[in-house]
Structure prediction request, 432 residues.
Amino acid sequence: MSENVGRWLRDEIENAILSSEFVPGERLDETVLANRFGVSRTPVREALMQLDAIGLIEIRPRRGAVVIDPGPHRIYEMFEVMAELEGLAGSLAARRLDKTSRDAITASHSRCEQSAGAGDSDAYYYDNEEFHKAIYAASRSDFLQEQCVQLHRRLRPYRRLQLRVRNRLSTSFLEHCAIVDAIFAGNGDEARRLLRTHVGIQGERFSDLVASMAAR
Amino acid sequence: MSENVGRWLRDEIENAILSSEFVPGERLDETVLANRFGVSRTPVREALMQLDAIGLIEIRPRRGAVVIDPGPHRIYEMFEVMAELEGLAGSLAARRLDKTSRDAITASHSRCEQSAGAGDSDAYYYDNEEFHKAIYAASRSDFLQEQCVQLHRRLRPYRRLQLRVRNRLSTSFLEHCAIVDAIFAGNGDEARRLLRTHVGIQGERFSDLVASMAAR
DNA sequence: AATGCCATTCTTGTATACACAAACATTGAC
DNA sequence: GTCAATGTTTGTGTATACAAGAATGGCATT
Prediction:
């Protein structure tokens, strides 16, 4: 538990939303949450305000707080921005690569290879996250890294859905290989291009996403 | 005044920070702010929590809230990300341009021409903002637009400093012309490239920034 | 004279209480 | 029978009070 009840609650509720325990559109009642976490209403309100400021929930006066439902179109837009930011991270990483970052990328990349080879989509989901985070870190831009991590978190539930799609595991890993090659070769433009298409959701992948969202 | 005191205060304090009334490093005392705005401490805390969640201030447990001092390096990183996002907005705008957006861009562009011609850097500062917002809107991506506006707001004070630099007004306007041409020609890649260099701060412009920050 | 410890004060953090607004239901009138 | 108005209940919004922790200053001791 964090040093501060409000902040702890914020993280707790944020995780509950990102892990789909609280689904989009769901009403978040202050007293219910207060009872559930064994605190008074005040820190709950503080946490909700912060989540509202971040954009995860919406507090409408006298209507209560509800989890924001982004909808397929907005999800697409978010992936579009994510692709752009990851592309930038990749191109910076290619230029600024040092040994530490290189080792981190190599390590997470080979973990991806293992879980992809085993067809373990849950393990790959986790290793993939580490791989991308290693690239953010390699960009050597703290701000960019923070932005990427934040967006990555918000897109997490949908990314998980995507991995369920047939053959996506091996395709994803092959793309990783090319990305690693480009970064290690110092080819920033190529790394950017590859990451943009790797992260973005074009054509059929968008309909896969919509379909899996609807199936939920 | 907004429908909600906490939210109103958040905007109020945010503006005070972005207009450099509260400078980086400054301590924000809850009771002082409460007295100043004629409200109790509770809504002030709510506002501060939200600003903390956004990343404008930092609340350290039992140490109070201070305005975050980004420092030159982080400012540079923020401009770097901004350049990337604006590039994306420009490339999408070039692809998706419709009459409404085209008119909005043309209108704000000619206002820039007037204020640049008159050498009125304060007017240009405002018109320039509208010009860039018109491009965000033309991207037809709500999420991208929101991200751009938010970052634009946070970088506002530094952008203002930059415009003071000699000849920057006319240079900036010439760049705008090329950007408009590329977007209207439907040349997304060119619009992206031009916006990236227009917004980013390379070489001497970075030292200009650092110098003007130090002079403050 | 310097350093360490204790106490006091200030500030944040949490909870409770009170007030206001909105929505829904019930009753009365047309 | 239907519509409107009023009252009650529920839930949000704000403020105040109380508690806990951290920092600073002073005093005492070495």
User: Anything to note?
Assistant: Residues 29-31, 41, 45, 61-64 of chain A lie near DNA strand D (CB under 10 Å from a C1'). Residues 71-215 of chain A form a domain with the Four Helix Bundle (Hemerythrin (Met), subunit A) fold (CATH 1.20.120.530). Chain A has a mean pLDDT of 90.
